[in-house]
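Changelog-linked ticket: adenosine-5'-triphosphate example.
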Amino acid sequence: MKVTYNEKDKLLKIEITEEIDHHSSEKIRTRADFEIQKYIPKKLVMDFENVNFMDSAGIGMILGRYKMITMFGGTMGMINVHSSVKKVFEMSGITKIIPIIEEIGGTEIGKCV
Amino acid sequence: MENVYENKMKLEFLSKSSNEAFARITVASFASQLDPNIEEISDIKTAVSEAVTNSIIHGYEDKIGIIKVECTLFANSIEIQISDNGKGIENIEKAKEPLYTTKPELERSGMGFTIMENFMDELKIESVVGIGTKITMKKVINN
Ligand SMILES: Nc1ncnc2c1ncn2[C@@H]1O[C@H](COP(=O)(O)OP(=O)(O)OP(=O)(O)O)[C@@H](O)[C@H]1O
Ligand SMILES: [Mg+2]
C-alpha cells in the first residue's frame, strides 16, 4: 500500500498494491483506517491502478472506509479502476455513492470528492 | 458432444484464507486449456474466489475443514464444483438475494451469490444444514 497526503487540499490518496479478497482485505482495512484517523482528510481517493483482482470482499472493504470518512465529514472517490474490478463494483451499485473519477484535481473530483 | 468430458481435475485444501488465491489461480490455469479470453478468465477467478471464501467464512466459520474443488472441461465449457462439510445454508432462496448476508459485522456485502450467478452461465446451490454445501457453476467458453 502506498499512502500520500496533500495537506493543502486535505486529500489522502491510498494506493492499493495487491489483489483484494477476504485474505488481504483485513490488512488493507486496518492500514487504511489508521491513515484516515491520522489525517482526518476532507477527501479520500482509493487508487486501484495496481489491483488486478477483486472479489466481493472489496465491496465490503470500500463501503466500510466510506462509512468512516463520512463520519469525519469527508468525501470519497475511486480512481484507475480496471475493467474486471469495475465489473464487481458496478454489480453492487456502490459506484452510485462512491464514484469512479477520471482524475484528481479535475472538475470531476471537485464535484464528487 | 457436451456430455463427453475432455479433462478433469480435483483439489482438496484446508479452509485457510491464504488458499483463496491458490484456488482461483489453479482453476484459472486449468481453464486456460479452453483458451478463454481475459474477461472469461477473470469471471472464473472471481466466482471461484466467492465460493471458496463462503466455505471458509460461513461454512466452517472459525473451524478448519476441507474444501474440495472439482473441475471438468468440456469442448466449449468448464464446470466447477466447490464443496464443504460445513454448517450448511438454511434458506437458499434468501441467501441468493443481493445484499443478504448473515455476517455484516465482518463487512461482508452479501454480493457473493449475485456475482457467481452473473459472472457464470449456470449456478446450482445444494446445501443441507449440518452436512455441508455444494456449489456447481458452469461457464461457456466461446473460443
Ligand atoms: N458455504 C456456505 N456455508 C454456509 N452458509 C453459506 C455458504 N455460502 C453462503 N452462505 C450463506 O449465504 C449468505 C449469502 O452469501 P453471499 O456470498 O451472497 O454473501 P456474503 O458471503 O454474506 O457476503 P459477500 O460474499 O458479499 O462478502 C451468507 O451470508 C451465508 O449466510
Ligand atoms: Mg460471500
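Closing comment: Example verified and attached. The pocket of adenosine-5'-triphosphate (ligand 1) is lined by residues A 56-57, 60; B 50, 54-55, 58-59, 84, 86-89, 95, 100-103, 108-113, 133 (CB under 6 Å). Chain B has a mean pLDDT of 95.
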